[in-house]
Design brief:
By secondary structure, the protein is mainly alpha-helical. It has 5 helices and no strands. Helix 2 packs antiparallel against helix 5, helix 3 packs antiparallel against helix 4 and helix 4 packs antiparallel against helix 5.
């Protein structure tokens, strides 16, 4: 029998388990394996959410000085909340528990969407459309992942 060497090499059961997990993450399929093995960096939705955070920070730098400490803070917190909750979902012990954090991330994304619309409607910034499109993409990915994780979690 092959021995586990800690790097996922060999023919042992743990190596097979980890290989299947990473195939599932890379192909977009979900894994029913314990989430402590999921790396949020491998999730496409987290990557997109991180890009949104960077975009929101750049956008809030263009806000008027009197809005920098009010609306700017709320927008930044909401954006960071989306990516943070995705990361926390990946670290949860069960898919069902992870789906709950994805749902929180989805709520924060909706909050952020409105705030970005608001700063555009108030005329504080222009060209916020790209940020809105990115937020909508993240929301769609989150909703799909929530459904998938909820279906694949044991009763």
């Amino acid at each position: 029998a092959a021995r586990w060497n800690g790097r996922g090499e060999g023919r042992g059961a743990r190596a097979v388990l980890i290989a299947r997990l990473w195939q599932g993450i890379d192909s977009g399929r979900l894994s029913a394996y314990p989430s402590r093995m999921r790396d949020y960096h491998a999730l496409t939705v987290w990557k997109r959410a991180h890009e949104v955070v960077l975009s929101v920070f750049a956008l809030t730098r263009r806000l008027p000085a009197d809005e920098r400490y009010e609306l700017s803070r709320q927008m930044r917190r909401a954006a960071v909340s989306v990516a943070s909750n995705i990361a926390e979902a990946a670290g949860r012990a069960s898919l069902r528990d992870g789906a709950r954090f994805l749902s929180i991330a989805c709520g924060s994304a909706s909050e952020l969407e409105y705030q970005v619309e608001l700063v555009g409607d108030l005329g504080f910034v222009e060209r916020q459309r790209e940020t809105l499109v990115s937020i909508n993409e993240v929301q769609k990915m989150l909703k799909s992942l929530i459904v998938s994780w909820s279906k694949n979690s044991p009763p």
